[in-house]
Amino acid sequence: MYFCRQPMRFKTEYMKAFIFDLNGTMIDDMTYHTKAWQRLLNDDLGGDFTWDDVKRQMYGKNQEVLVRMLGPNRFTADEMNRLSLEKEKRYQKEFLPYLKLLPGLKDFLEKAYQQNIPMAIGSAAIPFNIDFVLDNLNIRHYFKAIVSADDVLLSKPHPETFLKAAQLLNVVPADCLVFEDVPKGAEAAANAGMEAVVITTTHQPEEFRPLQNVVHFAPDFSDDFIKNLIAN
After folding, report:
1. Phi, psi of 122, deg, nearest 5
2. Do 223 and 213 touch, CB atoms closer than 8 A?
3. How far apart are CA 63 and CA 75, in angstroms?
4. Domain ranges of the chain
C-alpha cells in the first residue's frame, strides 16, 4: 500500500530534475488515442463502449486497458501484444499530420538543456510510441532517461515509473518535478514523493482535488509559472 504524501512548501530551487509524461502532456494527442481505442474495442472486438467509457479506463499499459475493458481471460499475452501494436499503428497514422509539441515546450526543453537540468520521460506508452514522438520531432537529445511501459512491472498510479526515472537521473525523488495530464499520473507522482504540475489538455483541475502534490495547473508550457521554473 502506498499513500499520497503531504505537500512541502513548493520552491523552484528545490527542483533539480524534470520528469515528463508523454501523451497529453508533451503533445495533445489523447483524442487520437481515445478514437483508436474506441474503434478497436467496438468495431474489431465487438464492444459497445462510449467515448467517456474509453476515456475513463484509458490509462496504464495497453494490456491493462484490454483487461479492464474486456475481462482477464479473453486474450492470450500474444494476442494482447498484437492488439496493442495495431491500436498504436492506427493512432500514429491518424495523428502524424498533427504531431507537434505543446506551446512553449520546445523553448522550455532547450533552456533546461542549456542549464544542464536533467530531464526524463516517464510514460505508460510503449517504446514504439515514444520513438514515434521523439524521432519525428527530433527531441531525443533533451532526455537523459526514458522509462516506458516495457521498463516497469506496475503502471501508474504505482510510483515505479517515476522512481525509476529519478534513479536513472541520479536525483532523489523529492527533487524531481513531474509534468502530467491525468489524475492517475499525478497520483503516481505523489506516491513517488514528487510534486506535479498538471497540463490541462485532458482533465480539469477539479478532477485532481484529492491530490495534495499538485502545485500548479496550466494549459501549456507558455504559462508564466512554468517559464519561471528555469528563469535565469
Report:
1. -125, 100
2. no
3. 9
4. 12-29+101-228, 30-97
Closest CA to 155 of 5, 7, 21, 16: 21
The C-alpha cell at 82 is 498484437
CB 41 within 8 A of CB 49: yes
Q: Average the pLDDT over 198-215 and give the result.
A: 94
Listing DSSP states for 73-94 in one string gives TSS-HHHHHHHHHHHHHHHHHH
Judging by DSSP bridges, how do beta strands 119-122 and 145-147 pair with one another?
A: parallel
Q: Distances in Å between the alpha carbon of 205 and those of 148, 187, 214, 219?
A: 26, 13, 10, 11
What cell does 30 get? Answer: 489523447
Strands (DSSP E) contained in 80-144 are 119-122
Structure confidence by residue, pLDDT tens digits, 31-76 = 999 999 999 999 999 999 999 999 889 888 899 999 999 999 899 9
pTM over 0.90: no
Instruction: State the CATH architecture for 12-29+101-228.
Output: 3-Layer(aba) Sandwich (3.40)
Read off the C-alpha cell for 37. 481505442
φ, ψ of residue 58 in degrees (nearest 5): -90, 75
